[in-house]
Amino acid sequence: MSNPAKAASFGPRVGLFATCLVDLFRPSIGFAAVKILEEAGCSVSVPVQTCCGQPAFNSGDRATTRDLALQAMEAFRECDYIVVPSGSCGGMMAKHYPELFAGEPKLAQKAQAFADKTHELISFLHDVLGIRQVAASFHGQVTYHDSCSGLRELGIAAQPRALLRSVQGLTLVEMDEHDVCCGFGGTFAVKYSEISGAIVAKKTDHIAKTEADLLLAGDLGCLMNMAGRLSREGRKIEVRHIAEVLAGQTDVPAIGAKPVS
Known about the structure:
Helix content: 40-55%
Order of helices and strands: EHHEHHEHHEHEHHEHHEHEH
CATH topology of the largest domain: Rossmann fold
Number of domains: 2
CATH architecture of the largest domain: 3-Layer(aba) Sandwich
Number of strands: 8
């Protein structure tokens, strides 16, 4: 997101960590997140930020990861909460930042305090703010993919489904193996592309069998991976981040859609 969101004048101070992929490829997710949070009564800001450090962390580059973590911890210092529209980045910040500073008591304490106030977007809405109803509508069938980090590191499964069921006109159809990896896995898809391709091919078969109009998930990396495969297979299924549906912002082109000439 290129411009900081205008902060509301009430409610908890929420800093939105937009993520690299959202900033570079899908800013509409960030704007949808801001809309939902402000409607929930939060005062939202988007501090200057960069990568959460997960690619470096997964590649064993602890020095770079540490520098990125320190930058994020300082940028969001004044926020009551850090909210992330990604289970992957949220998991990195909430679960792995503290271990970067093991043996450094002051920084470890600071990292733990940061981690304790970091939440994935949907979990924050449901578990922290107690939101059970959204003022949005979508007329059609959707299916939902549970991204690995959100599910396994942060326990996100029931929350998105509860909020989706409150969307007027929406019907949720579960796919087979909805909780199985899509094959993206960040750098995994680059290092082991053939394995990744086989995994996502199985996933798109399950998606297609639901006959859903729309595929949703909470991680843009997973969504881009599945959207790419669906497009190559000629499947006519739209792909969006769950925040776009919950915010009622489905007028932008779907992920992976070809631009209108």
